[in-house]
Structure to design on (374 residues):
Protein backbone atom coordinates (compact mmCIF):
# COMPACT_ATOMS: atom_id res chain seq x y z
CA UNK A 1 0.00 0.00 0.00
CA UNK A 2 1.48 3.31 -1.09
CA UNK A 3 1.94 5.86 1.65
CA UNK A 4 -0.04 8.89 0.41
CA UNK A 5 1.79 11.37 2.65
CA UNK A 6 4.83 12.42 0.69
CA UNK A 7 7.83 13.79 2.47
CA UNK A 8 9.75 14.70 -0.64
CA UNK A 9 9.03 15.62 -4.22
CA UNK A 10 5.76 16.13 -6.06
CA UNK A 11 3.67 13.29 -7.44
CA UNK A 12 0.58 14.91 -8.87
CA UNK A 13 -2.78 16.24 -7.73
CA UNK A 14 -3.71 13.25 -5.60
CA UNK A 15 -0.87 13.85 -3.21
CA UNK A 16 -1.13 17.60 -3.06
CA UNK A 17 -3.30 19.41 -0.56
CA UNK A 18 -5.13 22.64 -1.40
CA UNK A 19 -3.13 25.63 -2.71
CA UNK A 20 -6.01 26.21 -5.09
CA UNK A 21 -6.03 30.00 -4.81
CA UNK A 22 -2.28 30.34 -5.10
CA UNK A 23 -2.19 27.98 -8.08
CA UNK A 24 -4.88 29.96 -9.85
CA UNK A 25 -3.19 33.24 -9.04
CA UNK A 26 0.16 32.14 -10.47
CA UNK A 27 -1.46 30.69 -13.59
CA UNK A 28 -3.41 33.89 -14.12
CA UNK A 29 -0.19 35.86 -13.80
CA UNK A 30 1.52 33.63 -16.32
CA UNK A 31 -1.35 33.96 -18.76
CA UNK A 32 -1.27 37.72 -18.45
CA UNK A 33 2.43 38.15 -18.89
CA UNK A 34 3.09 38.92 -15.23
CA UNK A 35 6.09 37.31 -13.58
CA UNK A 36 5.61 36.02 -10.03
CA UNK A 37 7.76 36.01 -6.92
CA UNK A 38 6.81 33.18 -4.57
CA UNK A 39 7.85 33.67 -0.98
CA UNK A 40 7.54 31.65 2.19
CA UNK A 41 9.47 30.29 5.12
CA UNK A 42 11.22 26.97 4.46
CA UNK A 43 9.40 23.67 4.07
CA UNK A 44 5.98 25.17 3.50
CA UNK A 45 5.59 23.96 -0.07
CA UNK A 46 6.99 26.45 -2.59
CA UNK A 47 8.78 23.87 -4.69
CA UNK A 48 5.77 21.57 -4.56
CA UNK A 49 3.54 24.43 -5.66
CA UNK A 50 5.80 25.25 -8.60
CA UNK A 51 5.53 21.66 -9.84
CA UNK A 52 1.79 21.70 -9.24
CA UNK A 53 1.45 24.88 -11.31
CA UNK A 54 3.59 23.30 -14.05
CA UNK A 55 1.30 20.29 -14.08
CA UNK A 56 -1.80 22.46 -14.44
CA UNK A 57 -0.35 24.66 -17.17
CA UNK A 58 0.75 21.68 -19.20
CA UNK A 59 -2.73 20.25 -18.90
CA UNK A 60 -4.23 23.46 -20.24
CA UNK A 61 -2.03 23.89 -23.27
CA UNK A 62 1.23 22.59 -24.72
CA UNK A 63 3.96 24.23 -22.67
CA UNK A 64 7.53 23.72 -21.72
CA UNK A 65 8.05 24.27 -18.01
CA UNK A 66 11.62 24.52 -16.84
CA UNK A 67 12.57 24.22 -13.18
CA UNK A 68 15.95 25.61 -12.17
CA UNK A 69 17.14 25.19 -8.58
CA UNK A 70 19.79 27.73 -7.68
CA UNK A 71 20.32 26.46 -4.13
CA UNK A 72 23.75 24.97 -4.80
CA UNK A 73 25.00 27.71 -7.12
CA UNK A 74 27.76 29.97 -5.92
CA UNK A 75 28.48 32.19 -8.88
CA UNK A 76 27.20 33.26 -12.27
CA UNK A 77 29.06 30.47 -14.04
CA UNK A 78 27.17 27.92 -11.88
CA UNK A 79 23.87 29.60 -12.76
CA UNK A 80 24.60 29.40 -16.47
CA UNK A 81 25.50 25.72 -16.11
CA UNK A 82 22.17 25.10 -14.38
CA UNK A 83 20.29 27.00 -17.06
CA UNK A 84 22.06 25.13 -19.88
CA UNK A 85 21.62 21.73 -18.22
CA UNK A 86 17.92 22.30 -17.65
CA UNK A 87 17.42 23.46 -21.23
CA UNK A 88 19.17 20.36 -22.57
CA UNK A 89 16.94 18.15 -20.40
CA UNK A 90 13.82 19.84 -21.75
CA UNK A 91 14.83 19.70 -25.42
CA UNK A 92 15.98 16.16 -26.23
CA UNK A 93 18.51 16.03 -29.04
CA UNK A 94 16.30 13.69 -31.05
CA UNK A 95 13.87 16.53 -31.76
CA UNK A 96 14.60 19.40 -34.11
CA UNK A 97 14.56 22.03 -31.34
CA UNK A 98 17.02 19.89 -29.41
CA UNK A 99 19.31 19.78 -32.45
CA UNK A 100 19.18 23.58 -32.67
CA UNK A 101 19.94 23.87 -28.98
CA UNK A 102 22.96 21.62 -29.43
CA UNK A 103 24.23 23.96 -32.14
CA UNK A 104 23.89 26.90 -29.75
CA UNK A 105 25.58 24.91 -27.02
CA UNK A 106 28.52 23.95 -29.19
CA UNK A 107 29.28 27.62 -29.75
CA UNK A 108 29.64 27.98 -25.97
CA UNK A 109 32.26 25.21 -25.70
CA UNK A 110 30.70 23.22 -22.91
CA UNK A 111 31.93 20.08 -21.26
CA UNK A 112 29.06 17.60 -21.30
CA UNK A 113 29.13 14.73 -18.85
CA UNK A 114 26.54 12.16 -18.00
CA UNK A 115 25.59 11.52 -14.42
CA UNK A 116 26.70 8.00 -13.53
CA UNK A 117 23.52 7.22 -11.64
CA UNK A 118 20.72 9.04 -13.45
CA UNK A 119 22.34 9.10 -16.90
CA UNK A 120 21.26 12.73 -17.20
CA UNK A 121 23.48 15.25 -18.97
CA UNK A 122 25.43 17.75 -16.87
CA UNK A 123 26.80 20.76 -18.65
CA UNK A 124 29.80 22.67 -17.40
CA UNK A 125 31.53 25.80 -18.58
CA UNK A 126 34.71 27.47 -17.64
CA UNK A 127 33.94 31.11 -18.27
CA UNK A 128 36.19 33.71 -16.78
CA UNK A 129 35.10 36.81 -18.65
CA UNK A 130 31.85 38.58 -17.99
CA UNK A 131 31.40 39.05 -21.72
CA UNK A 132 31.48 35.26 -22.23
CA UNK A 133 28.84 34.77 -19.55
CA UNK A 134 26.66 37.50 -20.96
CA UNK A 135 26.95 36.12 -24.46
CA UNK A 136 26.15 32.56 -23.37
CA UNK A 137 23.04 33.60 -21.45
CA UNK A 138 21.90 35.74 -24.37
CA UNK A 139 22.30 32.82 -26.79
CA UNK A 140 20.51 30.35 -24.53
CA UNK A 141 17.56 32.64 -23.89
CA UNK A 142 17.23 33.78 -27.47
CA UNK A 143 17.09 30.11 -28.52
CA UNK A 144 14.25 29.66 -26.04
CA UNK A 145 12.42 32.82 -27.06
CA UNK A 146 12.32 31.55 -30.63
CA UNK A 147 10.55 28.31 -29.80
CA UNK A 148 7.01 28.28 -30.95
CA UNK A 149 5.53 27.12 -27.66
CA UNK A 150 4.46 28.60 -24.34
CA UNK A 151 7.43 28.59 -21.97
CA UNK A 152 7.63 29.02 -18.19
CA UNK A 153 10.83 29.12 -16.19
CA UNK A 154 10.95 28.83 -12.41
CA UNK A 155 14.09 29.96 -10.64
CA UNK A 156 13.88 28.36 -7.21
CA UNK A 157 16.03 29.68 -4.32
CA UNK A 158 16.54 32.84 -6.35
CA UNK A 159 17.89 34.78 -3.35
CA UNK A 160 21.06 32.75 -3.84
CA UNK A 161 22.20 35.26 -6.47
CA UNK A 162 22.91 37.64 -3.60
CA UNK A 163 25.80 35.39 -2.65
CA UNK A 164 27.52 35.50 -6.03
CA UNK A 165 30.78 37.41 -6.31
CA UNK A 166 29.41 38.94 -9.53
CA UNK A 167 27.41 41.74 -7.97
CA UNK A 168 25.89 42.68 -11.32
CA UNK A 169 24.16 39.30 -11.78
CA UNK A 170 20.77 40.90 -11.30
CA UNK A 171 21.49 43.56 -13.91
CA UNK A 172 22.72 40.93 -16.36
CA UNK A 173 19.67 38.73 -15.85
CA UNK A 174 17.26 41.65 -15.97
CA UNK A 175 18.70 42.91 -19.25
CA UNK A 176 18.30 39.48 -20.78
CA UNK A 177 14.88 38.70 -19.34
CA UNK A 178 13.14 42.04 -19.91
CA UNK A 179 12.72 41.89 -23.69
CA UNK A 180 11.51 38.27 -23.72
CA UNK A 181 7.86 38.01 -24.68
CA UNK A 182 7.47 34.28 -25.05
CA UNK A 183 8.80 33.25 -21.65
CA UNK A 184 7.22 33.83 -18.24
CA UNK A 185 9.08 33.57 -14.97
CA UNK A 186 8.47 32.44 -11.42
CA UNK A 187 11.10 33.47 -8.87
CA UNK A 188 10.91 31.60 -5.62
CA UNK A 189 12.75 31.59 -2.34
CA UNK A 190 12.61 31.53 1.42
CA UNK A 191 14.68 34.49 2.39
CA UNK A 192 11.98 37.10 2.48
CA UNK A 193 14.08 40.16 3.13
CA UNK A 194 16.63 39.22 0.46
CA UNK A 195 13.96 38.52 -2.14
CA UNK A 196 11.88 41.53 -1.21
CA UNK A 197 14.93 43.67 -1.58
CA UNK A 198 15.63 42.31 -5.06
CA UNK A 199 12.11 43.05 -6.26
CA UNK A 200 10.98 46.00 -4.12
CA UNK A 201 14.05 48.17 -3.92
CA UNK A 202 13.79 50.93 -6.48
CA UNK A 203 17.55 51.01 -6.85
CA UNK A 204 17.78 47.39 -7.97
CA UNK A 205 17.32 46.08 -11.52
CA UNK A 206 14.31 43.83 -10.86
CA UNK A 207 12.34 46.59 -9.13
CA UNK A 208 8.56 46.28 -9.62
CA UNK A 209 8.99 43.63 -12.29
CA UNK A 210 7.04 40.86 -10.58
CA UNK A 211 4.02 40.29 -8.39
CA UNK A 212 4.72 38.75 -4.98
CA UNK A 213 2.73 35.85 -3.58
CA UNK A 214 3.27 34.94 0.02
CA UNK A 215 2.67 31.27 0.75
CA UNK A 216 1.32 30.62 4.22
CA UNK A 217 0.21 27.58 6.20
CA UNK A 218 -2.43 25.35 4.62
CA UNK A 219 -5.78 26.17 6.33
CA UNK A 220 -6.77 23.73 9.09
CA UNK A 221 -10.01 22.67 7.48
CA UNK A 222 -8.45 21.92 4.11
CA UNK A 223 -5.59 19.99 5.66
CA UNK A 224 -7.78 17.98 7.98
CA UNK A 225 -10.13 16.98 5.13
CA UNK A 226 -7.12 15.95 3.09
CA UNK A 227 -5.69 13.81 5.89
CA UNK A 228 -9.06 12.23 6.66
CA UNK A 229 -9.70 11.41 3.03
CA UNK A 230 -6.31 9.75 2.50
CA UNK A 231 -6.69 7.55 5.55
CA UNK A 232 -10.24 6.67 4.60
CA UNK A 233 -9.48 5.79 1.00
CA UNK A 234 -6.88 3.38 2.33
CA UNK A 235 -9.41 1.77 4.63
CA UNK A 236 -8.05 3.29 7.82
CA UNK A 237 -10.09 5.19 10.36
CA UNK A 238 -8.68 8.17 12.19
CA UNK A 239 -10.67 10.34 14.58
CA UNK A 240 -11.14 14.08 14.08
CA UNK A 241 -9.47 14.54 17.45
CA UNK A 242 -6.35 12.70 16.26
CA UNK A 243 -6.16 14.81 13.11
CA UNK A 244 -6.52 17.95 15.18
CA UNK A 245 -3.68 16.74 17.38
CA UNK A 246 -1.43 16.13 14.34
CA UNK A 247 -2.11 19.58 12.93
CA UNK A 248 -1.51 21.34 16.23
CA UNK A 249 1.57 19.34 17.18
CA UNK A 250 3.20 19.79 13.76
CA UNK A 251 2.09 23.43 13.74
CA UNK A 252 0.65 22.90 10.24
CA UNK A 253 4.17 23.39 8.92
CA UNK A 254 3.71 21.31 5.76
CA UNK A 255 6.83 19.19 5.82
CA UNK A 256 6.45 18.32 9.52
CA UNK A 257 2.74 17.62 9.16
CA UNK A 258 3.53 15.31 6.25
CA UNK A 259 6.19 13.48 8.28
CA UNK A 260 3.78 12.86 11.15
CA UNK A 261 0.98 11.71 8.84
CA UNK A 262 3.41 9.50 6.93
CA UNK A 263 4.52 7.91 10.22
CA UNK A 264 1.00 7.38 11.54
CA UNK A 265 -0.05 5.87 8.22
CA UNK A 266 2.93 3.53 8.23
CA UNK A 267 1.95 2.06 11.62
CA UNK A 268 -0.42 -0.21 9.74
CA UNK A 269 -3.22 0.35 12.27
CA UNK A 270 -6.79 0.22 10.98
CA UNK A 271 -8.46 2.17 13.77
CA UNK A 272 -6.10 4.97 14.77
CA UNK A 273 -6.53 6.55 18.19
CA UNK A 274 -5.02 9.73 19.57
CA UNK A 275 -2.74 7.64 21.75
CA UNK A 276 -1.28 5.97 18.61
CA UNK A 277 -0.64 9.41 17.18
CA UNK A 278 1.01 10.68 20.36
CA UNK A 279 3.25 7.62 20.49
CA UNK A 280 4.27 8.17 16.87
CA UNK A 281 5.15 11.81 17.62
CA UNK A 282 7.26 10.79 20.60
CA UNK A 283 9.00 8.18 18.54
CA UNK A 284 9.94 10.81 15.95
CA UNK A 285 11.48 12.95 18.69
CA UNK A 286 13.46 10.02 20.09
CA UNK A 287 14.85 9.22 16.64
CA UNK A 288 15.87 12.83 16.08
CA UNK A 289 17.63 13.29 19.40
CA UNK A 290 21.07 12.70 17.92
CA UNK A 291 20.49 15.63 15.56
CA UNK A 292 19.19 17.83 18.37
CA UNK A 293 22.34 17.21 20.40
CA UNK A 294 24.39 18.06 17.35
CA UNK A 295 22.57 21.38 17.10
CA UNK A 296 23.40 22.00 20.73
CA UNK A 297 27.10 21.35 20.09
CA UNK A 298 27.08 23.76 17.18
CA UNK A 299 25.44 26.59 19.09
CA UNK A 300 26.67 28.71 21.99
CA UNK A 301 25.07 28.31 25.40
CA UNK A 302 23.36 31.68 24.93
CA UNK A 303 21.90 30.68 21.58
CA UNK A 304 20.70 27.36 22.97
CA UNK A 305 19.02 29.09 25.90
CA UNK A 306 17.15 31.48 23.68
CA UNK A 307 16.14 28.63 21.41
CA UNK A 308 14.69 26.83 24.43
CA UNK A 309 12.87 30.00 25.47
CA UNK A 310 11.35 30.39 21.99
CA UNK A 311 10.31 26.72 22.01
CA UNK A 312 8.55 27.10 25.32
CA UNK A 313 6.72 30.20 24.11
CA UNK A 314 5.95 28.72 20.68
CA UNK A 315 5.84 32.19 19.16
CA UNK A 316 7.73 35.22 20.39
CA UNK A 317 6.19 38.52 19.33
CA UNK A 318 8.39 40.93 21.28
CA UNK A 319 11.90 39.71 21.87
CA UNK A 320 12.67 42.42 24.42
CA UNK A 321 9.50 42.07 26.45
CA UNK A 322 10.28 42.06 30.18
CA UNK A 323 8.16 39.01 30.87
CA UNK A 324 9.90 36.98 28.18
CA UNK A 325 13.36 37.97 29.42
CA UNK A 326 12.55 37.34 33.07
CA UNK A 327 10.64 34.10 32.59
CA UNK A 328 13.57 32.54 30.80
CA UNK A 329 16.45 34.33 32.56
CA UNK A 330 17.85 35.72 29.35
CA UNK A 331 20.80 38.15 29.20
CA UNK A 332 21.04 41.80 28.30
CA UNK A 333 18.89 43.31 25.60
CA UNK A 334 21.82 43.79 23.26
CA UNK A 335 22.94 40.17 23.61
CA UNK A 336 19.36 38.98 23.04
CA UNK A 337 19.13 41.05 19.87
CA UNK A 338 22.46 39.71 18.67
CA UNK A 339 21.46 36.12 19.41
CA UNK A 340 18.15 36.45 17.56
CA UNK A 341 20.03 37.85 14.57
CA UNK A 342 22.51 34.97 14.56
CA UNK A 343 19.78 32.32 14.99
CA UNK A 344 17.92 33.89 12.06
CA UNK A 345 21.06 33.89 9.98
CA UNK A 346 21.68 30.20 10.80
CA UNK A 347 18.07 29.46 9.83
CA UNK A 348 17.40 27.99 13.26
CA UNK A 349 14.47 30.38 13.65
CA UNK A 350 12.23 32.31 11.27
CA UNK A 351 10.26 35.49 11.39
CA UNK A 352 6.70 35.45 10.08
CA UNK A 353 3.78 37.85 9.96
CA UNK A 354 0.27 37.18 11.14
CA UNK A 355 -2.69 39.33 12.08
CA UNK A 356 -1.39 39.78 15.60
CA UNK A 357 1.92 41.02 14.28
CA UNK A 358 5.29 39.59 13.42
CA UNK A 359 6.70 36.77 15.53
CA UNK A 360 9.70 34.43 15.81
CA UNK A 361 9.48 30.64 15.93
CA UNK A 362 11.86 27.72 15.64
CA UNK A 363 12.22 26.42 12.10
CA UNK A 364 12.49 22.73 12.96
CA UNK A 365 9.12 21.91 14.50
CA UNK A 366 10.43 18.65 15.96
CA UNK A 367 13.32 20.42 17.65
CA UNK A 368 10.82 22.92 19.01
CA UNK A 369 8.59 20.19 20.45
CA UNK A 370 11.61 18.46 21.97
CA UNK A 371 13.01 21.65 23.51
CA UNK A 372 9.66 22.40 25.09
CA UNK A 373 10.07 19.31 27.20
CA UNK A 374 13.62 19.71 28.47
N1 LIG B 1 0.24 21.17 -0.78
C1 LIG B 1 0.93 20.13 -0.30
N2 LIG B 1 0.29 18.98 0.05
C2 LIG B 1 0.96 17.94 0.54
N3 LIG B 1 2.29 17.93 0.72
C3 LIG B 1 2.98 19.03 0.40
C4 LIG B 1 2.33 20.18 -0.14
N4 LIG B 1 3.27 21.12 -0.38
C5 LIG B 1 4.44 20.59 -0.01
N5 LIG B 1 4.28 19.34 0.45
C6 LIG B 1 5.33 18.48 1.01
O1 LIG B 1 5.96 19.24 2.03
C7 LIG B 1 7.37 19.14 1.96
C8 LIG B 1 7.98 20.53 1.80
O2 LIG B 1 7.58 21.06 0.55
P1 LIG B 1 8.55 21.88 -0.41
O3 LIG B 1 9.85 21.20 -0.57
O4 LIG B 1 7.76 22.18 -1.61
O5 LIG B 1 8.74 23.19 0.47
P2 LIG B 1 9.61 24.48 0.18
O6 LIG B 1 8.81 25.62 0.67
O7 LIG B 1 10.06 24.49 -1.23
O8 LIG B 1 10.84 24.24 1.15
P3 LIG B 1 12.34 24.85 1.03
O9 LIG B 1 12.21 26.32 1.33
O10 LIG B 1 13.09 24.13 2.12
O11 LIG B 1 12.84 24.58 -0.34
C9 LIG B 1 7.65 18.20 0.81
O12 LIG B 1 7.86 16.95 1.40
C10 LIG B 1 6.40 18.15 -0.02
O13 LIG B 1 6.21 16.86 -0.53
MG1 LIG C 1 11.94 24.46 -2.10
Amino acid sequence: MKNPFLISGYQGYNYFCDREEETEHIIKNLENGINTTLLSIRRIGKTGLIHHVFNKIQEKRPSICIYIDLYATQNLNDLIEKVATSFVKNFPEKQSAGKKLMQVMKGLRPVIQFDGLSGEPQISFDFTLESQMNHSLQSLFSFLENQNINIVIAFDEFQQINEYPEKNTEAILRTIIQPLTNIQFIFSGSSKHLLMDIFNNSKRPFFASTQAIQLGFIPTEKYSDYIQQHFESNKKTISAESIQFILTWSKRHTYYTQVVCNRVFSLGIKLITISDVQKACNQILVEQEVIFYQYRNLLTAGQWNILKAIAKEGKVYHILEKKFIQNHSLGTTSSIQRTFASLLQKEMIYEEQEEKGSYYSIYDCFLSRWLEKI
